[in-house]
């Protein structure tokens, strides 16, 4: 029985392996059946291999297909996240746009209010948000053509920008509300102060525009001033609408009058640069060059002893280029203790050489070192000259460097100020371009002393600045 099983096993092996298993007795049959059986077996083996290979390929395609499906799902999720982030961004951006537009309008309407913390904060926040770039994303879209990484980055950008807008809007909306309340009436007392200040400015404009502006405009200003005073006296404490309307009307008329006038330093921030102790053969021309290049006029207080020879040409250049020329006496010596006769001689001798060189009368006098007394003041009055001192000392006489001189002048200057410098100092000439630029950058208009006072200063007056004048009693 075991022999039968063995024979069966061999038969199976022959079926699978052909001639390589069992005996070869089949060949002796002579009918070719053995070869046919071998071919059959090889076909079967090949088929099995093909089936296996196909299975492997099928499995591989399944893996690749699964990976591609996962990528498609991940890309779709990234696209959905990006579009969701954009929807949130646009919703916030809509509120942001409205709030920023309102803030810009409020800032424009409250331009005349210069002492409001809320307005300053609002302006700074609006400028900060405008510069943050959050508005640029409004023009971008989430596209299926973008990669998953690009969509993720764009979604993050939408989220960050939305956070910036939300945080910024808190301040913008709060300060906008405060400004709106100021306009609507919660700060009526402040509005009254603003109108009162404008009335004073209008009265000054009316006074100073006489003979300089068409009388019909001045008549309109008189009418508006009367109306504003009446409103200020009769409007209820919380009637901000009436105060605002009156303020707007009066401001328009006042601004028109001022714009129609020649330059007046009572309405423009002016600074007068002055130079002492020239002319100097070496450095005065450098100072004049710097002033000419900047298109800026100045005032020179000359020592009589130096107005001779080639320096006469420098004096003529000064007046020819629009500068004022005054006297600092014959030489730099304090004069307040001099006898009356010596004072008169020094004035007369100095005025004579300066007038001859400049072709103009001397009407401005600066006492050396700023030292003066009643006798010196009386002589200045008799000589037809106002005494011009200064409110800002450049310190250029104290061996300071150009940067230090510049800082002292630019930091110390104020509207209506007179600055003391020395044109014989080489460092001053070097610092001058920076001084001029620094003052202009702060909004100052640079003028001569005569332009600063516009005829409002008389012989014997002592002036330290536009709003700091000691009037002569006589």
Automatic annotation (TrEMBL):
One of the record's GO cellular component terms: membrane
CDD domains assigned: CE4_NodB_like_6s_7s (cd10917)
Domain NodB homology: residue ranges: 269-447
Region (Disordered): 1-37
Pfam families: Polysacc_deac_1 (PF01522)
GO molecular function: endo-1,4-beta-xylanase activity; hydrolase activity, acting on carbon-nitrogen (but not peptide) bonds; metal ion binding
Keywords, alphabetical: Glycosidase, Hydrolase, Membrane, Metal-binding, Transmembrane, Transmembrane helix
Basic and acidic residues bias locations: 1-17
Catalytic activity, EC: 3.2.1.8
Gene Ontology biological process terms, A to Z: carbohydrate metabolic process
Segments of skewed composition (Gly residues): 23-35
Record-linked InterPro entries: Glyco_hydro/deAcase_b/a-brl, NODB_dom, Polysacc_deacetylase_ArnD
Signal peptide: none
Membrane spanning stretches: 43-64
UniProt-listed PANTHER family: CHITIN DEACETYLASE 1-RELATED, GLYCOSYL TRANSFERASE-RELATED
Protein's recorded name: Peptidoglycan N-acetylglucosamine deacetylase A
Organism: Bifidobacterium merycicum
């Amino acid at each position: 029985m075991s022999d039968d099983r063995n024979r069966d096993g061999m038969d199976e092996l022959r079926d699978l392996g052909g001639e390589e298993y069992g005996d070869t007795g089949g060949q002796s049959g002579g009918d070719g059946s053995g070869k046919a059986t071998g071919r059959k077996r090889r076909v079967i083996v090949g088929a099995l291999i093909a089936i296996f290979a196909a299975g492997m390929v099928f499995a591989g395609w399944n893996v690749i297909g699964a990976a591609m499906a996962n990528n498609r799902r991940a890309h779709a999720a990234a696209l959905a996240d990006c579009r969701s982030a954009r929807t949130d961004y646009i919703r916030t951006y809509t509120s942001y746009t409205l709030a920023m537009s309102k803030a810009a309008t409020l800032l424009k309407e409250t331009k005349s209010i210069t002492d409001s913390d809320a307005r300053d904060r609002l302006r700074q926040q609006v400028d900060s948000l405008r510069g943050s770039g959050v508005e640029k994303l409004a023009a971008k879209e989430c596209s299926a053509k973008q990669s998953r990484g690009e969509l993720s980055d764009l979604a993050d950008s939408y989220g960050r920008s939305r956070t910036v807008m939300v945080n910024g809007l808190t301040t913008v909306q709060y300060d906008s509300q405060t400004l709106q309340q100021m306009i609507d009436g919660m700060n009526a007392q402040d509005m009254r102060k603003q109108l009162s200040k404008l009335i004073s400015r209008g009265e000054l404009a009316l006074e100073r525009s006489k003979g300089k502006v068409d009388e019909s405009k001045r008549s309109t200003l008189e009418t508006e001033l009367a109306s504003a005073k009446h409103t200020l006296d009769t409007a209820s404490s919380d009637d901000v609408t009436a105060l605002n309307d009156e303020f707007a009307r009066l401001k328009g008329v006042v601004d028109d009058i001022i714009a129609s006038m020649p330059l007046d330093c009572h309405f423009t921030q002016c600074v007068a640069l002055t130079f002492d102790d020239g002319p100097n053969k070496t450095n005065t021309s450098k100072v004049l060059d710097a002033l000419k290049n900047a298109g800026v006029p100045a005032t020179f207080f000359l020592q009589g002893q130096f107005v001779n020879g080639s320096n006469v040409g420098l004096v003529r250049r000064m007046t020819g280029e629009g500068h004022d020329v005054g006297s600092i006496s014959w030489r730099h010596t304090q004069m307040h203790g001099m006898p009356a006769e010596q004072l008169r001689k020094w004035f007369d001798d100095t005025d004579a050489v300066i007038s001859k060189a400049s072709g103009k009368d001397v009407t401005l006098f600066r006492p050396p070192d700023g030292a003066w007394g009643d006798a010196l003041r009386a002589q200045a009055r008799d000589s037809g000259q106002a005494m011009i001192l200064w409110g800002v000392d450049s310190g250029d006489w104290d061996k300071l460097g150009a940067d230090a001189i510049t800082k002292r002048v630019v930091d110390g200057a104020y509207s209506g100020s007179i600055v003391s410098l020395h044109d014989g100092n080489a460092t001053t000439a070097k610092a001058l371009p920076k001084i001029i630029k620094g003052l202009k950058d702060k909004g100052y208009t640079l003028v001569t002393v005569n332009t600063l006072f516009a005829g409002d200063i008389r012989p014997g007056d002592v002036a330290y600045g536009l709003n700091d004048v000691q009037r002569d009693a006589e």
